[in-house]
Amino acid sequence: MVTNDLPVAPTLPAAHGPIRGRLILLGPAFVAAVAYVDPGNFATNSTAGARYGYLLVWVVVAANLSAMLVQTLTAKLGLATGRSLPELCREHLPRPLNRLMWAQAELVAMATDLAEVIGGAVALRLLFGVPLLPGGLIVGAAAFAVLALRARGFRTFEIAITVLLGVIVLAFAVNLLTARPDLSAAAGGLLPRTAGTDSMLLAAGILGATVMPHVIYVHSALTPNRIPTSGEAERRVVAKGLRVDVLIALGVAGAVNLAMLLVAAASFHGSGIPGTDTLEGVHAGLAGTLGTVAAVGFAVALLLSGLASTSVGTYAGEVIMQGFLRRRIPLVARRTVTLLPALAVLAVGVDPTRALVLSQVVLSFGIPFALVPVVTFTRRRDLMGSLVNRRATTVAAVAVTGLVVALNAFLLRQLLA
């Protein structure tokens, strides 16, 4: 069980003053948010903008709104039950189903690590000319330094992740102002439409890169017992603070995702610049169209994204195994196992951007396995108490889950045809 190292009083947030009392409720969603701007997002959003211009703006916006709903339910689930989603699955699901849930969650964690390590390796090559395979090893090893901050208390880890997220935000804010996208065309992109199977596949990748299954498990483990409460009134105060945490953190992540697509659309769509549907091509294209500062900012943001998100991904693996199986393995062993697929992809020379996009499609197939239990548990009054879902919330969550399942079924049919 994850706890927070903050010295808190029984009554919150009033016991700490109007400002500090609210600030101490922030943090878990920012750890989750960094996974929403991981290298997979760089690949899918940049590819979408370069290939289709502003066509898929609606997908980014819809995915982020869905993520806000999902992460709010996830945070509330941990607060109300005092347990993570994997722990609840172990307690309430039949053993064979629980084992199946664990197996797919581990595959999701590996697909996540694939995107994060590859993205970081590409960034090192763009910045310093480091070959991809050694770059992957460097990113994998560097994640331990970020994870080591947890030994100083989880608040330190949250702050470090938030700082990395802030640098990513700054880089894309500068690039967005420089690119000057067509705002009217971007607004037109809010109308839901696609341009064939390829755009649908990319839309699924955007969804998989935004509504991340592994971070659903992580977020549910960050909120139990974070702040001691005595009674339903205090629990509702903390729940409100967690909702604000989600809105701010995922609002920031959503803005970054949208900026990725808008910069690529404004800079590359219809320009005839070759290779701008790859990370390397985006970097080179930004250097040519917006200047060296924009290209370096993109690469630095990509590197920090890979480093931060792979740290969160490794922590997700711990939460998954501990929750579903009530077992732990040494961190070095877990890191090695999840790192191997990414290193294998880098070693055989698979196109990094293509591997990133496909990894996000894999993640989109893992979303229902996390969403269905979250919706099921949060609608149960015996588990949630006064924090049980309202009917409208459950309806919205079921609609999101149904949309994801329908989209994945369509894609599976297309891929097997």
From TrEMBL:
Keyword Transmembrane helix: yes
GO biological process, one term: iron ion transmembrane transport
Record bears the keyword Hydrolase: no
Membrane topology of this protein: Multi-pass membrane protein
Entry's Gene Ontology molecular function annotations: cadmium ion transmembrane transporter activity; manganese ion transmembrane transporter activity
Keyword set, alphabetical order: Membrane, Transmembrane, Transmembrane helix, Transport
Membrane-spanning residues: 23-43, 55-79, 128-147, 159-179, 199-223, 244-266, 286-310, 331-350, 356-375, 395-416
Main localization category: membrane
Domain of life: Bacteria
Cellular location(s): Membrane
GO cellular component terms listed in the entry, alphabetical order: plasma membrane
Cited Pfam families: Nramp
InterPro entries: NRAMP_fam
NCBIfam families: nramp (TIGR01197), Nramp_1 (NF037982), PRK00701.1 (NF001923)
Entry protein name: Nramp family divalent metal transporter
The organism's taxonomic lineage, starting at the top: Bacteria, Bacillati, Actinomycetota, Actinomycetes, Micromonosporales
